[in-house]
Amino acid sequence: MQKNQFSNVFWRKVREDMRMEILLEKMPLKQFKLYELTEDEMNINLDQVTQWSPDNEKIYKNISENGFADFICNKEYMIETYTNIVFDSEDITQMDNQLLQFKNLLLLRLNHNKIEVVQHLPQQLVELHLFNNPITTLNLLKHNLQYLGLGYCLLNDDAIQTIPKFLPQLIGLDLSHNQLCDLEYSVEACKKISNLKMLSLYGNPLVLMPQYFIYIVDNLLNLRSFDEQSFLEIKNRLEQAEKEKQAKKQEALRKQQEEFEQQQKLLADKNKKGGKPGKQPDPVVVQQPQVIIPIEEPKINLNELRQFKITLKIQTLENLEGILLDKYSYPLMEQNSKLFQSKYAITANLFGIELKTKELLYETATIENEIGRIDFEFSFEQLFNPDVDIRDAVEQGFLVSVSVEEPKMFIADDGEKRPVLGQDELPEQTIKVLGVCKITCDWLRGYNKQFNKKYRLFKEETKNSAEHWFPLENEQDLVQAKMEMIQKEKDAELEEKKAQQALIEQKKEQSKGKGKDVKKKDDKKNVKKGKDEPAQKLVGQLDWEVDTRQYIYVNEKKVHRATDMLLAIALDLGY
Q: Which Gene3D superfamilies match (predicted)?
């Protein structure tokens, strides 16, 4: 397949946009003016051509005054005229050697193309923008380039090591959203660029390291802007955080010292009272508190630049309705109780990576007045290497799901719910997902690595709708437009529940009741009562911020609605 070179795109645009069908190779020795041309006669869209180069306005004016004369319509004149070229999204695959002929070119922007190798930089070039290209190789020669934008490319730690050697005059360098994994190795390369004032590394796997900002501040002292933030503000923020950390440590050690002194006093009082004659009291060992040593600067263990830890804590804040069959009615329950009750599971996934699943049997729930509750939590920690796969997974976010496996039930003639039993007299099982939620943070910019939040659960069907995790700009307007449809769905669900309850009541009337096999039923009044009772256990968690997103717009025919259940989730990336 033929490469789509920069020069091919350039000359095509000159011919098509600037209406220069015939181009001489060299500038003629004599300049012969033809005649002035009107806008209609030139047929050049000035607004369009100045978008890819402001220099086209000068050429446009020259053509209007002199016509398409030979001293204008030649390659030598065109190459010398251009100082600024913007060819975004032109499917360019190669920076060919004709670029070297543009001796007056100061700014070149080739974003959103298909370039794999950076090469052939014009000698006077000051700014080079190459964002969103599949670049893996920098084939550079010594150059005085001052700004290089290589964000959203495919560069690894080794590929950027040539930058300080061949581009020593760089003032600004953007390496955001590449494949840089080794914080120490990459920062060492940047340290060698003595004039560097602006640097962006966010979006790389190395950003996930908890010491990210601290290591940058300690090693790149000449920066003025880092990750599109003021370097001084970052430094001040870190210093303030370190002061607060040390203050907490001092306070903890002060309390430990007070406890030690109190224990010593109690021991002294005990020794004064004495014991039996001739018998020494048993020695009491009191651990000496640590010596308080103020830490002026944060010290970094380089081993901590190799891995990062994800800590996740999840706690339910709402009732989970469930089934617990009567062991006296079903003797086999003694042998395998799991099959005769609801079994809940919370599963946490980092997209494509299952982290942990917590399971809970319904019989472990608090049973008060035949109202069951399941308020359970779990937490875990896991270490990861900062690589591209884990970066991409973290960028997509965490997916937490709540599911239940329980006996399949039917409404018997007496109006009671009973399990569907198989040939072995064991209940048939059914599995359903009660809800899913997604957790995202802006971790790839190096901050917001800790947060507490309550998330609403959405129905299982949203798990298969990729677009629902990323709100549209006008999503709320679209949802509002569908409120009538949403209300109809709610009314239909309510009518269905009323009809089911009416059927139960009807069968109860017919049978006049024969007792209960199920201790926990889908009774909304009881559920609410049960939820309010133990809420005091979760007071601290209830103060968390609540994610208010209750609807997700998918398309013209579908709007997802959140369930009534909430999850309280605490996330932390750090040591």
A: Ribonuclease Inhibitor
